[in-house]
Amino acid sequence: MRVLVTGHQGYLGTVMVPILRDAGHDVTGLDCGFFEDCVLGPAPVDPPSIRVDLRDVTREQLEGFDAVVHLAALSNDPLGALAPEITYDINHHASVRLARLAKDAGVRRFVYASTCSVYGSAGEELVSESAPLRPLTPYAESKVRVEDDVAAMADDSFTPVFLRNATAFGFSPRLRADIVLNNLVGHAVLTGDVRVLSDGTPWRPLVHARDIASAFLLALEAPSSTVHCAAYNVGVESNNLTVAEIAQSVVDVVPGAKLLITGETGADPRSYRVDFSAIRNALGFKAAWSIPAGAAELYEQYVSAGLTAEGFAKKFTRLPHLEALRSRGDLDESMRRITTDA
Ligand SMILES: NC(=O)c1ccc[n+]([C@@H]2O[C@H](COP(=O)([O-])OP(=O)(O)OC[C@H]3O[C@@H](n4cnc5c(N)ncnc54)[C@H](O)[C@@H]3O)[C@@H](O)[C@H]2O)c1
Question: Cα separation of 170 and 333, whole Å?
């Protein structure tokens, strides 16, 4: 299958591309390169790619692909809170436009990276795909809007699939340090402390980046009758843990690390436990990675690649890195790259 992966130079894309290629797919990337140099350890080998801002993609650029895997987005809550209108522009409007152009260009399948945070605060009950969507942030709201608008485009020629990923963890050469397990392990390696700023009670569903890639592969290859316009939570119930339990798994793998639950940010309303039975039953999805195994992998990679405090706080944290690109004059007010080598 000829597959276009948007956001291929991000944390998930960098891990996903080799997995799709190893499965025999002909992969092209599409990215504006916000994080292309944010690499820890040996540089990854990128596929052939189109360097363009998602907002400027043309129909011609989408011709000849059988499927689009759409990962490109401003990918977290702090970014969304900083610039909600740009988040809606990229994550919502440009994503819907991409889907429309892809459909016009004859692309038959559109696999979209949504998020379990569309459920917002859900309490103790396990939430399945039919639960009400109560997004709490512009980021999560943008994902709900894309699901709604792209679902309306589904027909015999166009099969969208919405993968609502749990929060990712695990090593990627284009590391993200601003997601919970990656962050806690990094902090422990650099300072000896595992600091939890909330009271530790919120539930978080987690899933390894390579397990997310496996789910996307399944969604690409499944018969369209199985996945047509379906939404699937991506993860496994055994990785629904409280923040305090996640932190304990870090203490267990980082020698000498101490657990500090400070509670300084008070209660966190983003708490939910997720039911992952639909993707297991429909697609045979199995998550290979537990949180302790992921914490151990991160510890080994951080130590062997020589993670520094500077890299951890800036290069591998999405918001300060984008702010640095902006203050260097590489991005304009709308966060378009000013210099490109397209
Ligand atoms: N990592 C997670 O925990 C997680 C969980 C659920 C959903 N997701 C979703 O998965 C997708 C990928 O996440 P990630 O963690 O790899 O994020 P990331 O920030 O590492 O990667 C996003 C990629 O999109 C590109 N991009 C952003 N805006 C663009 C634009 N205007 N034009 C072209 N390219 C643009 C960036 O350059 C980057 O390479 C996102 O849609 C995210 O919302 C991620």
Answer: 32
- The letter for the amino acid at 77 is D
What is the atom index within ligand 1 of the atom nearest the CA of 36? 39
Instruction: Please state the length of the chain.
Output: 342
| Alpha carbons 267 and 313: distance in angstroms, whole number | 24
**For ligand 1, atom 5, which residue shows the shortest CA distance?**
167
Mutating to test ligand 1, I would choose from 9, 58, 75 the residue with most ligand atoms within 8 A of its C-beta, which is 75
12, 35, 68, best to mutate for ligand 1 pocket (most atoms within 8 Å of CB):
12
* 172 CA from centroid of ligand 1 (Å): 13
Q: For residues 162 and 175, give the distance between their C-alpha atoms in angstroms, rounded to a whole number.
A: 24
The C-alpha atoms of residue 69 and residue 275 are separated, in whole angstroms, by 23
Q: What is the pLDDT along the chain (342 residues), one digit of tens a residue?
A: 999 999 999 999 999 999 999 999 999 999 999 999 999 999 999 999 999 999 999 999 999 999 999 999 998 766 766 678 899 999 999 999 999 999 999 999 999 999 999 998 777 789 999 999 999 888 999 999 999 999 999 999 999 999 999 999 999 999 999 999 999 999 999 999 999 988 898 889 999 999 999 999 999 999 999 999 999 999 999 999 999 999 999 999 999 999 999 888 776 767 789 999 999 999 999 999 999 999 999 999 999 999 999 999 999 999 899 989 989 999 998 999 886 554
Q: How far apart are CA 253 and CA 296, in angstroms?
A: 6
Which pTM was predicted?
0.97
String of DSSP letters for 306-320: T--HHIIIIITSHHH
> Per the structure block, which two tokens stand in for 26?
């002909």
Determine the CATH number of domain 2-175+205-241+272-295.
3.40.50.720
Domain extent listing, the chain? 2-175+205-241+272-295
